[in-house]
Design goal:
By secondary structure, the chain is an alpha/beta fold. The protein folds into three domains: about 120 residues, Response regulator (Rossmann fold), CATH 3.40.50.2300; about 60 residues, no CATH class; about 240 residues, Hypothetical protein af1432 (Orthogonal Bundle). The chain is about 55% helix and about 10% strand. A five-stranded parallel beta sheet has the order 2-1-3-4-5, with helices on both faces. It has a two-stranded antiparallel sheet with strand order 6-9. Helix 3 links the parallel strand 3 and strand 4. Helix 1 crosses helix 4. The longest helix has 22 residues. The chain is globular, with a radius of gyration of 25 Å. It binds fe (ii) ion. The site of fe (ii) ion has 6 residues, from helix 14.
Length: about 450
């Protein structure tokens, strides 16, 4: 059996490549974290057939180091480099610029190892894709068979059917798997779209119900947001994800309308069982809606527009929510993240605004609100210099987003409350921004007044 060393720090891609290499190419996949670890292994195991490595891991020029080692030892180890603009570090390496083209990686690996396309085709087994276990928390039945993956050996996985299409299943069964730290179920690859449609329809039905308890409604919105954002990033807009998005936005507006007091609502959102991205999204929408209400400029259309913008503003971070915590250039520079993540953070406002334009019914102007939500006019990076060039809705959204970030940071940090409002006044001293911050302050004082 051939042996492949795989160096890829994106966990999803790593898993995808590992499972497909072992299933289709029939090799043992040995994961290594970086070039040094791989070189350590090559020193004692020079018979490794192939190395598949990302061009850079963090600051390390991984591919370059590996090429230098292979050349210096005159090894005939095959090499596939993933990503990077460099043509090639070595005439013997194959560079696959877009690592997401994983099928190309598998085919190239087979070719290097001397496995013909015919043999590869014969090996093709049912193809499964992972689905987060959390997706099943809101389902009682599934439209397709659902499997769990069991590792039988280093290169051998078995898929065992756990839920039959159409059969009811219990929530306790799902809970049991969660308790056993199972993160994903699997479904047949050709059922992916069907399953997304089915799940979206079920969530839309839940969102369309009347809720007496706001906490319950918020939890349904939170669960639906998590599914909708992941599926939009994976499959783009389909009629199912468009409908789900609209229902979530409608519910966010509905919850705001039903609540008389902002702090209580923020409290409920922050205490829901949900992630950073959802909480930041929903609270930004609430705070921005409160501002237009206090300024006497509220309209139903603008409440919707703000909720919509909040939904999409940081959608790029669905796979790595912590990146949403970076909201200044200094924080970005100080962060210890990969080049790809750096680009993702720097460009996310622009990229989200481009994505929104593909939504067939996005309200006019939402794309601009999202593009400007960190103050940079071109949607790249962060800035405080141009806020006076923005319209009032864009300014309100930016202030609300920053306020919520600080509120969440304080909650995590604990200790003495920081004067968030005072800091906002200092950061944005223009007359229009002062007006917006005052509108927010009015609400907060009202709450404090009640308490006193
Ligand atoms: Fe953002």
């Amino acid at each position: 059996m051939g042996q492949i060393v795989l160096i890829e720090d994106n966990p999803s891609l790593n898993e995808l490549l590992s499972i497909n290499l072992s299933t289709y190419v029939g090799v043992e996949v040995i994961p290594r974290a970086n070039a040094d670890e791989a070189i350590g292994l090559l020193t004692i195991l020079p018979t490794i057939d192939l190395i598949i490595c990302k061009h850079k891991i963090g600051e390390e020029s991984t591919a370059k180091k590996i090429v230098e080692f292979i050349n210096s030892k005159k090894l005939d180890t095959g090499l596939i480099i993933l990503g990077g603009n460099v043509k090639s570090h070595s005439e013997h390496a194959v560079v696959i610029e877009n690592a997401n083209e994983w099928e190309k990686v598998i085919n190239t690996s087979a070719k290097i190892l001397g496995i013909s396309q015919e043999i590869l085709a014969k090996k093709i087994l049912p193809d499964y894709i992972p689905v987060p276990v959390s997706y099943f928390a809101r389902l009682d039945t599934s439209c397709c068979d659902v499997f769990i993956r069991i590792k039988k050996g280093p290169d051998d996985y078995q898929f065992v059917k756990r839920i039959h299409a159409g059969d009811a299943f219990s929530k306790s069964m799902v809970k049991r798997y969660v308790e056993q730290n199972l993160t994903h179920f699997y479904i047949a690859k050709d059922m992916q779209k069907n399953f997304t449609n089915f799940l979206s329809d079920q969530l839309v039905q839940l969102l369309d119900q009347d809720y007496d308890e706001i906490d319950e409604q918020i939890q349904v919105i939170a669960d639906s947001y998590s599914v909708a954002t992941k599926e939009i990033l994976k499959l783009g807009f389909t009629s199912a994800t468009v409908q789900l998005t609209d229902s979530i936005v409608d519910n966010m507006v509905d919850v705001f309308g039903k609540t008389s007091e902002m702090s209580g609502l923020l409290h409920k959102i922050i205490n829901s069982k949900s992630g950073y991205l959802y909480q930041h999204c929903h609270m930004t929408s609430v705070v921005a809606s409160e501002c237009i209400k206090n300024l006497g400029i509220e309209t139903k259309a603008d409440h919707e527009k703000l909720a919509f913008a909040a939904f999409f503003k940081d959608i790029s971070f669905v796979e790595n929510e912590d990146l949403a915590r970076i909201t200044t250039y200094d924080e970005l520079e100080a962060s210890n993240i990969s080049e790809e993540d750096w680009d993702l953070v720097f460009n996310h406002a622009l990229e989200s605004s481009v994505l929104i334009r593909k939504h067939p019914e996005a309200p006019l102007g939402v794309d601009e609100i999202v593009k400007l939500h960190h103050g940079a006019m071109n949607g790249k990076g962060f800035s405080t210099a141009n806020v006076s060039k923005m319209n009032s809705l864009q300014q309100i959204f930016l202030i609300s987003s920053e306020f919520v970030k600080e509120l969440m940071a304080f909650r995590e940090r604990g200790g003495k409350p920081t004067p968030i409002i005072d800091e906002l006044y200092q950061k944005y001293p223009t007359p229009e921004m002062i007006n917006v911050i005052k509108a927010l302050e009015t609400t907060l004082k009202r709450k404090n007044g009640k308490k006193a």
